[in-house]
Amino acid sequence: MASVRNNSLLAITNYNQRNIEPPKRANGKPLYTSEYFGQNVFTLKEMERTLPKSIFQKFIQQQKGRVSLDRATADAIAHAARVWAMDKGATHFTHWFQPQTDSTAEKHDAFLSLKTSITNGHETITAIDTFSGSQLLQAEPDASSFPNGGMRTTFEARGYTVWDTTSPMFIQEGPHSTAVLYIPCVFISYNGEALDEKTALLRSNEAISHAAVRLLHLIGNTDTKRVITTLGVEQEFFLVDRGLCTLRPDLKICGRTLVGSVPPKHQQLEDHYFGKMPSRVLATISETEIELFKLGVPMKTRHNEVAPGQFEMAPIFEESSLAVDHNLLTMEVLHRVAHRHKLKVLYHEKPFKGVNGSGKHCNWSLSTDTGENILDPSVKPETNPRFLLFFIATIYAVYRHGALLRAAIATSSNEHRLGANEAPPGIISVFLGDQLNEVLNAVEEQREIKNFSQHQIQSVKVGGTILDLKIATLPPISRDLTDRNRTSPFAFTGNKFEFRAVGSKQSPSFPVTLLNVAVCAALNEISNELEKIKGEKTFASLEDVLTVVRIFIKKSKAIRFEGDNYSQEWVEEAARRGIPNITSCPEAFKMLLDPVHQKILTETVPIFTIPEVQSRYHILNEKYVKDLLIEGNTLKGLISQYIIPSAFEYRREIAESLVSLNSIGIDISASPEKAVLVKIGDLTNKITQLKGELEKAIAEVSSTQDIVLAAEKAHHEILKVMDDIRTNVDVLEQIVADKYWSLPKYSELLF
Q1: What percentage of the chain carries pLDDT values higher than 70?
Q2: pLDDT above 70: residue 473
Q3: Going by fewer Cβ within 10 Å, which terminus of the chain is more open, N or C?
Q4: CA–CA distances in Å: residue 329 to residues 299, 314, 363, 599
Q5: What is the largest CA-CA distance in the chain?
Q6: What single-letter DSSP state applies at residue 278?
Q7: CA angle 101, 367, 222 (to 5 degrees)
C-alpha cells in the first residue's frame, strides 16, 4: 500500500491540466458572462416568449399566490418547457427535491413515450415525445426510503414531489451531449407532512412576509404588499487530489480524516489566506463558475481560505428559497467538475484536525417587494423607524430563540468545528459593532449619540467614518458602520446579519427556516406592542416606535456581545447572563422539543405540525448515531488493515537490523533501534486496547433501541475513545518510517 501511495504522489507531478474553454461567439471571441448567464434556465422571460399571453399571466398570478394552476395552463407550460429543453439536448426530466439528508434527490424519466393506434385491425406503435401538465406538477417517490422520523413505514410508501413554481426549471448538461430538465420541488408524505427541507422554508417565508407587512403598515409603509427574506451563502470547502483521497478510507467514507498528524508547516504563517490559487484549483473553480453561470447562479467571489487546501465561493444575494437551491447546485456542480480535474471536494466541517474547518456563512436580510433592503440603517439609523424595528426584532429573536438556532446547526460534523479557534462557539450571541451598539444604547437611555474617538470624526452614520492614511497618493477610505467579528456566530455586517455558525456540509434550509420563524414571532410581538402604544392613531409616530424599541432593547440586551467569543471569559460571562452554552448535538436537538420552542414552531408561527417537529427530532438523533457508528467502524478498519500492519512491518525491519548488529558483536542493549521498538510496542498495545474499547462502545450504541439514549451514548462513549485512538496513532505516524506508512499524510493531502 505504501508503494501505491508513492505512485499517487508521482501521478500528481505528471498531471496534465484540463483546458477550460469559455463559451464563444461565432467569430471565436469569448462571450461576456452576462451574455450566457442563465442560458440553461427556463426563466420568466423565456416563459413569456414561449407561452400564450393568457397562460403566462395565469402563471404570474399563481406565483403571487392568487390562483391555482388549472390543467390547461399546466399542460401549456409543460409543452413549452419540453420543447425548450429538448431543443437544448434534453432527453429526460426529473423532479429535484431536498430530503432531510443535506443533499438533493432526483429520478430521471424520459420524454419518450409510445402511442398505440389500430387501423383496419392492425396495431401500430409510434414513438413520441410527451410531457404533460400532471407530470410537471407532481410525481411519486418512495416516501419510506427517505428520512421521515417514523411518519412513513415500509408499507406506507407513497409520497409526492410537487413543483415549486417560485424556483425556475433548469437544464443540467450531462455526458455525451445529453441533458436533463430539472423541476425544483417540495416533498411531502401521503398525508401532507413535510418530508423535505424546502416546504418548511417556503412556509416560513410566507409567515415572515405577513408579519413584516403588518409591522410596516403600522408605521405608514402601506405600499409594501410583500416582504422577502434574502440570502447570500458563502461556501467553504477543501480540494484534495482524488488519487490520494481514494487511499484514505476515512476521507472516502466519513468525509474527514480520523487519524493524521499536522505537518510542521500548515496555516501558522497565515500565507494561504487570499493567496494565489493553485492553477489546478483555479481551473476547477473557473469551470464550475461557467456551468453555474449557465444555470443562473450568480457567483461573485472566489478565494483561498485560511487553511492550506481550503477555498471559498460566494454568490450575490437572492431570495432565500432560490439561494438555497443555488447553494445546493453549487455543491453538486463543484463536486462534478472537481472529478474532471482529478480532485475531490470535501464539504465536511472539519476534514483535517489541527487546521481551520469550513463553514457556510448565511448572510440574511429582508427586502420589500420594491427591492428596498429593510436592514439598511440609512444615514441616521436612530431616526429610521423601519430599520430600528426590524433590527431590534432580529436581535430579540436571537435572544428568545438562540437555543433553537443552535439546534438548527447541530450535526455530528459541525460538532468538531463549533467552539474551535476558527469557528463560533456553541453560545449564540449577536455582534453589532461599536457604532450601532451606541445607537441602541442612546435610544434606550434617551440621550444624544456620542461622538467617537478622534479618528472617528463624524457622528454615527451608515457611510461610516473617514480614515486618513496620511499617504497623498491614496484617496480617503470610508469606514463601514460596523467592524467584522469573525468569532461571533451571528453578526450584523452593514445591512444584513451573518449567521456564521452554519456548517459547510449542511443545507442552509433548516437554519434559515428557524431564523425566519424566530424573527417572525418577534415581529408579531413588536406589532402587538406598537398597536397598544399608538392607540387610535392611524400610524405610529417616531416616538411611539422609539418607545417600543426601548422595551425590546432592554429585553434583549444580554444577547449582545462585542468581544472575543473564543475566550473563556465570555463562557463565564454568558453563564452569568443566562445564555445557554450547548456543547453537544444531543443536547441541542432537545431544544426542538422544549415547550417554548415547540410552541413557536407549531402555534405562534405554525410552520410545522407537532408530528413534523417530533419527526425532525428523531431524524437528527438517528443521523447523529449513524454518523458516529460509521466513523467508529471505519476507524476499526483503519487500525486493523492499515495502521497496525504498517507499524508491524517497520518493527520487523528494526528487529532484523538488531539481530544483524548482534550477530557481528555490536552491543544492542542501549541502541536507538531498541528504544524505537519499545515505543512502537507500547503504542500498538495501547491502540489495540483502545480498539477493543471502541468495539465495545459501538456494540452498546448499536444495541440501544431508544434513539435519543443511543445518541447520548454515542457522544459520550464513541467520540471519547476515537479521540484517544487518534492521539496514539498520530504519535505512531511520527515514528514509523515514511516508506511503511500506507495512508497519505496531511502534508501530501493539503499541499
Answers
A1: 93
A2: no
A3: C
A4: 12, 13, 18, 33
A5: 107
A6: P
A7: 130
pTM for the model: 0.93
How far is the C-alpha of 48 from the C-alpha of 732, rounded, in Å? Answer: 66
pLDDT at position 588 over 50? yes
Lowest mean pLDDT among 84-93, 139-148, 570-579: 139-148
pLDDT digits (tens, 9 = 90+) for 303-340: 999 999 999 999 999 999 999 999 999 999 999 999 99
Closest C-alpha among 147, 112, 110 to residue 128: 112
Look at 454 and 201; give whichever has higher pLDDT: 201
305: closest CA among 278, 331, 330, 286? 278
Mean pLDDT score across all residues of the chain: 90
Q: What are the Cα distances from residue 740, in Å, to 75, 643, 676, 744?
A: 65, 10, 15, 11
Q: Which residues contact 678 (CB under 8 A, 6 or more apart)?
A: none
Among positive and negative, which fits the CA dihedral 646, 647, 652, 657?
positive
Residue 60 near residue 318 (C-beta atoms within 8 A): no
Instruction: Specify whether the CB–CB gap between 313 and 238 falls below 8 A.
Output: no
| Burial tier of 28 (Cβ tally within 10 Å: 0-12, 13-18, 19+) | exposed
Instruction: Supply the DSSP symbol for 313.
Output: E
Neighbours of 166 (CB within 10 A): 17
Q: How far is CA 272 from the centre of its chain?
A: 23
Residue pLDDT, tens place only, 614-649:
999 999 999 999 999 999 999 999 999 999 999 999
Q: Is the pLDDT of residue 482 over 90?
A: no
Rounded CA separation 281/311 (Å): 9
Domains of the chain listed by start with CATH number: 37-196 (3.10.20.70), 204-608 (3.30.590.10), 623-750 (1.20.120.1560)
The residue among 396 and 263 whose pLDDT is bigger is 396
Output the 3-class SS for 196-258: ECHHHHHHHHHHHHHHHHHHHHHCCCCCCCCEEEEEEEEEEEEEEEHHHHCCCHHHHHHCCCC
Query: Which DSSP category does 416 fall into?
Result: G
In this prediction, residues 68-90 reach a mean pLDDT of 94
pLDDT > 90? residue 688: yes
Q: How are beta strands 122-129 and 138-139 bridged, if at all? A: unpaired
* Rounded Cα gap, residues 257 and 307, in angstroms: 15
Query: Any idea of the CA torsion for 243, 247, 249, 253, to the nearest 10 degrees?
Result: 10
Bridge partners of residue 260, in order along the sequence: none
Which residues have CB under 8 Å from 444's CB, separation 6+?
Answer: 550, 553, 554, 557
The total of other beta-carbon atoms located within 10 Å of residue 225's CB is: 13
H helix or E strand, kind and range, residue 138? strand 138-139
| Mean pLDDT, residues 3-15 taken together | 79
Beta strands 497-499 and 490-492: pairing type? antiparallel
On the 0-12 / 13-18 / 19+ scale of CB atoms within 10 A, 706 is exposed
Which of 48-57, 264-273, 433-442 is the least confident region?
Answer: 264-273
**CA-based torsion, 73, 78, 81, 84: positive or negative:** negative
Instruction: State the pairing for strand pair 108-110/299-304.
Output: unpaired
> What does the block give as the cell for 571?
463562557
d(CA 28, CA 5): 43
Average pLDDT over residues 383-401: 96
